[in-house]
Fold each of these.
Amino acid sequence: MQVASFIFCAFVLITLLITSLISPKYRYLGLLAASLLFYALQDVRYLIVLGALIVVTYVAGLSAQQHKKAAFIAGILINVLVLGYFKYIGFFSGGRLTSIFAPIGLSFYVFMAISYLADIYKGKIAAEKNFFKVALFLSFFPTVTSGPIERAGHLLPQFDEENMAKIRFDIDRIRDGFVRMLWGFVMKLVLADRISIMVGTVYDSPSKYSGSILALASILYTFQIYFDFAGYTHIVVGAGKVFGLEIIENFNTPYLSRSIAEFWRRWHMSLSSWLKDYLYIPLGGNRKGTVRKYINVMIVFMVSGLWHGAGINFIIWGGLHGLYQVIGAVLKPVREKTGRLLHLREGGSAGEAIISTLFTFCLVNFAWIFFRVTEFKDIIAVMKGLMHPQLINLMDGTVYTLGVEAPAVVLTFIGILGVIVVDILNYRGIRISEKIAGERLWIRWPVYIAAIMLIAVCGVWGQGYDSTSFIYANF
Amino acid sequence: MKNKVYKGVKIIAFWAIVGVLITGTAKFLESKDSFEKYTTFGQVSDQVDVLFFGSSHMLNSVNPSLLYSEFGITSYNMAQPGGVIPESYAQLVNALDYSDPEYVVVDVWALDRDYHYVDEMTGTETEETLRNSVSLLHNSMDYWPLSVNKIKTVNELIKDNATKMEFLCDFTLYHDRWQNMAEDTSVDLENEYLGSEVREEFVDPTQYSPDDMTQVIEGEPESLKYLYKIIDLCESRDIKLVVTFMPMATIYDQDVQAVNTVTQIAEERGFTFLNLLDDTTVIDKTVDMSDNTHVNMLGMTKISRYIGQFLTDTGDLTNHKGDSAYSKWDEIVSEWSQTELKEMMDEDELYAKLGRVYNTNASIVLYVKNSSKIFNDEKALKIIKLLSGTSVIDGAGNGNGPYLMIRDTTNSQVLEYVGNTDETGSSALIGDFEYVSADDFGAVYLGGDTENNMLDMTDYYESELQLYIMGADGEVLQAEYYNGTWSLIEED
């Protein structure tokens, strides 16, 4: 079952209906049953891996509570080894070994398990004694395939009886949840999946295209991965809202960041904060001198790259982001001095803000090329191609030959523009969804109906399409 | 409580609006291919006496417009390209929801096929072949509104559940057509060919037959099972069944097996089997084939007349011509005639041009010069003989002088002249005329005006053949001149 599907919406509604009939005290069991069913529908074998890790994490959690270091380390190690086997065995064995299958969402719930154990060990939270709640925490169906990487301290308390009592047919809450999901569907099905066709066409044979088209493809991919993952996040956060559960946010207008450091505070926030809390700080963070700090930054970002995929290209991608940060930090005094010489306002002028934002976007965009193009020869072809822009290709109709019909290309560019505008408004604290929800019915309904029709008609869905799986589900 | 009811009503109203909008949009975005074929059927379905089913062999062989025009038989050609017997069965089941025909005529090409799921076929086909097969089925099925029979037949033809949804709710497939709506502006839902399709090509087919012409189908492949289902269905509905096998120049083992098997079944179950596979009496395979296994426009006309005559001879059918209740059929056939005339006028390839002249029963003046290659072209000569109804042309050309034919269909007369001659006092649609010919020269003088030659012996003297399409009042509607490769040199 795909998250970006009508079936998922129906699944959410049916689960809501059933769980609302259960006594609040035991509603988490209804959610757990739904979650396990959802995960088993992906592939029943995955359930075995998830089940085993739930047991390990639960037992290790109880032991960690009693400061049994060995049990805590064993719990962490088993999780890491399971992740290592299923995800990295091929990479680290040079392709000589392969895992028997690759459970979807493994990277996400292993990280959740590690954070759960670490937080208990550090005394931040108490170990959950109810096995089924731990199971629900790790398997909660909206987040199990692609996150966000929830923290036990945030999600587990929401499974308490008091909070579970909220699971009922509260029309306004359900509406708000589905409206949030609707926006996610637009980003995913109308924009991301159509962009993916264009990007795929170019990157399948990059040597056939000029630099301008390759640059366009890289920009399109930058938006594709954002719309894809942010779209997914809107759907799962919306689904959580339908149940009265708050799922942590993962994105906050990342492409409006003015620096790479800011970008990582706005992009995949649940992973960034996890890496900071459970890797960067344990490594010493910035407490052990500048050089060590830079080394730590590089380690964190290369691990981040590796987390995204077992491939050199992902490590390069992570390494690039690390490098951006280190270079940024090294050059900070120079930039500040230049600013003072040019009498630039502290805090930055509007022009400086735009230039910083565009420069950061370009750096991020360049790094995404390594994320998307997995073959070394293709990366070389892209880099060579970028040296020969041939700008005419942007206007001679080539863009309409990338697997998407001209009207859909126009729709895509309008859509990209639309999301940028919404993000700018969000950046300035104006929440469009809240504004619409606060409007009268004759304004609200046409907007909602237009969104539904947009997805129904212009969405990439139905037979003949196979792009509804999210990019981040692969990680 | 009041508040809850109010919210409930709002939810229902909201989704009702969405439902209406999606239903309307789905109708708008639907592919029109199937509707191009069957919309006219929907308009006349309750008056149809004969339904034709099968594959491209049936599609290209029987023209219901001709059947009505010449025999007053109301019929519709439901056949689809690649249509295997299970698909014909599905079509029949759905068509019978709207029609109560006297006769059902089914062509049994591919009777040996041992599958009924078109999205799986034999399991060895490529993904592209399977997708193509499913696409073709859409042309058959999209037209039919959702019904119990549609669901049943889709279940019989499609294995994959997601693909079934394509047929039962085609919005899942066609919602993306908003990008191609410009194509729909040229769609004409009126089908004046009543479902049939004409092939223009004239080829020299490879004529081949297997050594063993007695072989039969072994076992009971799925297609054969579905033929039995068609037989049972027709019997249960008291519909007379006729089974056909259309002519082929290249005959394969499976074709022989099919006709021999059906011959046996026809005897057992008591239906008529019109076996034209190896026939030489209805069509001429040297002229009437568009490829090795399909007939062209001339073959279609001949087979249609043969079937029309057969159905008429049964005495079971009423000639509906002149019946005011059937005026829609007159309109359709009138439209068909107009289209055929236009196609004939637009045609610029000689064989097809002459074939269309024959099919439209047009009046013409045709001149072939003495040294023309036509006289050595067996196919061209046969078509010209078909037009004249005689073999007079055999005496012309190759030193025996030119050939002139005046085909006056208004007055049902054909005048032909060969060799060097000077004919005066003749009269036809073109009026009184004098024909003078000598070696490679010909002149047709109208109304005693010997200053003006109707034939062009100056600018187009070198042309191999001159063709003049005449109007009902004897005026020249079109003059065309053909070169030695039977391509059009010029037209006036």
Amino acid sequence: MTRKATAFTALAGLLLLIGADLIGAPLNPYQAPPAFAFGSGQVASGGFCGALPN
Amino acid sequence: MNTAILERQAASGGIARRSALILAALAAVAALALFGGARYGFMLAIGLGFGIALEGLRFGFAGPWRAMIVRREPAGILAQLLAIALVSIVAIPAISSHPGELTGAQAPIGFAMVGGAFVFGAAMQVVMGCGSGTLVNAGSGNPIGLLALPFFAIGSFFGAYGLIWWTNLGALPILTLRGTSGLAVTLVLLALVAATVFFLGKRGSRSLPRRYVIAALVLAALAIANLLVAGQPWGVVYGLGLWVAKGVNGMGFDLTQSAFYAAPGSITRVKESLLTDYTSLTDIGLIAGAFGVAAWRQGGLSQKLPSYPARAWAATIIAGFLLGYSSRLAFGCNVGAFFSGISTGSLHGWVWFAAAFAGAYLGIWLRPRLGLEARA
């Protein structure tokens, strides 16, 4: 067996994850934030490993 | 004659494969920008850039630390410090001048944080992959990385689940270096660490190879772009835990028993698409970008998989889980705490570095004993 099998397994897992997520939580471009946070005037609210939840 | 024809066929096959890879990446970014929003498309592109840079330039975090500890080769760590310094020059003033819009990787120093960083440092040397490294390794077909990744994600979920309990064991307030003076202190500290590593390094291995300089410059540019686009620094482990949390929530389990997942911000993110979560997008990009580089390289995916004893696979599962769990307690991995913490002025990044580097000695001692490499 070569790395082709493991690399494609990783890619397939990723695609499955994204596909399953899109079924449960579809995207909505009309709720999209401005392209850049910098200069947007909006408070950053993304999840981050260094932050406690708010 | 036959050889020439075969070479021409191989070359045209390579061009077709590489064209398909470029088209697939562009199509994915464009589709996300169109159907999700421009910011998310940019974040996926940045994540792909991280994956391409780390795999393409064969650069990372765990390997250089091992090289310094085992062989006294400081070049990799010097390149990491260079990248952090470059990011800090932009990030610390930008966060000070745009409070709220931009946030740093700022977290409290505490007992669990220090212990978590130590365990993470050990575990990353066992599997030879940190936060970003495990994703890149999985994407490029490394079987250890591929097996470690799901357990990393599960560990990250459970670490976040109990994070508040661990933090309540005792932690200082969040301490940050801000503004011009904060930047100056950060740069002086980075210079002092670089000088220490340089002088402890073996003669003849102290100069930075061109590949490392390029890697430092590219990583710094991408990390700055990450901050300006998302409003937060580059991170890895939050996204992995979120993937599991979404799955657990989808199966009907109640996450509100956890103080972390009961928080309004967490509830929102568990419900929303992971394609709108910045850390998830860069994580996806890391895996896909590394896959792209491995598929791009001639023979990149045709290497035979190595053989490991059963205890090595068991160790990988345990170490993968510990990577995820400990990095949540430590408020980040090499990326979120060390790279982004220090470059955005958080003192917890420095404490994380010291604790994880100490843990790396344990991991290096453990690795051959767990069957993950031949004993010297």
